[in-house]
Write a structure and sequence with these properties.
alpha+beta, Endonuclease I-creI, four-stranded antiparallel β-sheet, 446 residues, 38% helix, 4 domains
């Protein structure tokens, strides 16, 4: 399969790679195949961890091989989030058909990547935004072919269908008088004018479609009150069925965590009605969400938000958020995430290179937790016990004493066994058994 190169990483890597030995640009270029003109080159992604000794040297990691099929799945997901199909009346019986993706100017390279990979369309820049536009009739036909083979699954596929019908009328019947009224009627059914969102086509989600959709409409949020992590996807209620399908997809990724996604509908019944999917449980985030997205090749600036989000989780896992130094570091990370990262955001910017240099020794300095033999956890910096019993390490054993599994928290043990948090706590205290998979097991402190 053909592999693709990630231009966002290539052109922005200097933001994160101060201190790498030798000329990194030469190293990266050495991986590029002679067919760079077609953008089919080896993909190399970075992992901002495992920094070496005292220098901020990033460890590079080959992620899952990124193929042309992966690109088209990512592209259809990104289009479901950010794409737009437009019909404009020029004069008489002349119309213009546009496929467009509009992004913040900081994601300009994403549009050039799409442009170069597809080999069609043009990229336009302004002060704060950029657009990828396909308008040539021959290129429109290619867009229609792509989405025939790699279908959209949001409500935008209805606009695509109407747009495609109008384009076919225009290109097949542009000399007929009746064409004008037909195209005008179809145009009036699209985008904000659409009222019927009925669609019985299947919703097929895979990992790269989801990544593309998340790079468009996903959010990596940190609650500033308790530094809780929130993964969120928000969408108009007209895509309720799609959001249900995403929820099911995420819930089925790991059999131990089959109910990790919460779904809320806001302003129900109004034109502004929204559906919001959230994942907040730490175990689900660390064992389902992060492994899913970590192993894929990203293309937008949101990868840095995702990476920073995982850094905050690591700080919390080490118990460093109980220290003043850890709190300051989390706040520094938050101060340059999401909209704070944008070049158009007023105010001073955070030196990310310096942030990574300061973060390295903190993550390598060991845990601020001391685990007692009876399962309790002591916060080293304060000498106090961790209040929440949910963080107690436990193991489960069979009737003859064999260890079947071990868990970092009571919550993860409860999720694995399919019982409540309170049940695990009670059995940990009274030593009684729990019936699980037709057998009796016992919960013990680790």
């Amino acid at each position: 399969m053909k592999r693709l190169f990630n231009p966002y990483i290539y052109t922005n890597i200097t933001l994160l790679t101060r201190g790498i030995k030798g000329n990194f640009t030469d190293y990266l270029k050495s991986t590029i195949s002679p067919s760079i003109a077609t953008n089919q080159v080896r993909s190399l992604a970075f992992l901002s961890s495992s920094l070496n000794n005292s220098k901020a040297e990033l460890a590079f990691k080959d992620k899952d091989e990124f193929t042309l099929d992966n690109f088209y799945d990512w592209f259809r997901g990104f289009t479901d989030a950010e794409g737009c199909f437009q019909i404009t009346h020029l004069r008489d019986n002349f119309w213009r058909f546009n496929f467009e993706i509009k992004l913040h100017i900081d994601d300009l390279k994403v549009l050039y990547f799409i442009n170069n990979t597809l080999g069609i369309g043009k990229v336009y820049e302004s002060e704060k935004s950029c657009r990828f536009i396909v308008s040539k009739q021959s290129d429109i036909k290619k867009i229609l072919d792509i989405f025939t083979n790699y279908p959209l699954i949001s409500s935008k596929r209805l606009n695509l269908s109407t747009w495609g019908k109008a384009f076919k009328l225009y290109t097949d019947e542009n000399t007929k008088v009746s064409t004008f009224s037909k195209i005008k009627t179809l145009k009036a059914e699209m985008n904000t004018n659409r009222t019927d969102f009925t669609c019985n086509l299947p919703i097929n989600i895979n990992s790269y479609w989801l990544l593309g959709f998340v790079e468009g409409d996903g959010s990596w949020i940190v609650d500033k009150k308790n530094y809780g992590l929130i993964f969120s996807i928000a969408q108009s209620s007209k895509d309720l069925e799609l959001m249900k399908a995403i929820k099911n997809y995420l819930n089925n990724l790991n059999s131990e965590f089959n109910d990790i996604v919460s779904m809320g509908v806001y302003n129900e019944g109004s034109l502004s009605s929204m559906v919001n999917l959230t994942v907040t449980k730490t175990d689900a985030i660390s064992q389902v969400i992060i492994p899913l997205f970590f192993n894929m090749t990203w293309f937008s600036k949101k990868e840095m938000d995702f990476t920073d989000w995982t850094y905050i989780l690591k700080i919390k896992e080490l118990g460093l958020h109980h220290t003043e130094e850890g709190v300051r570091m989390i706040n520094r990370i938050i101060s340059q995430m999401n909209n704070n990262r944008l070049s158009t955001t007023p105010g001073p910017s955070v030196d990310r290179d310096l942030l990574l240099l300061d973060l390295k020794p903190m993550l390598e300095g060991g845990s601020n937790y001391e685990y007692k033999p009876e399962g309790q956890i002591v916060i080293k910096s304060s000498g106090k016990f961790l209040k929440s019993s949910s963080y107690r390490r436990v193991i489960i054993k069979d009737e003859i004493g064999n260890t079947l599994n071990e868990f970092e928290s009571i919550k993860s043990c409860a999720a694995y066994l399919g019982v409540s948090h309170q049940t695990v706590l009670r059995r940990l205290r009274d030593g009684k058994s729990i019936k699980w998979n037709s057998s009796l097991i016992f919960v013990k402190p680790k």
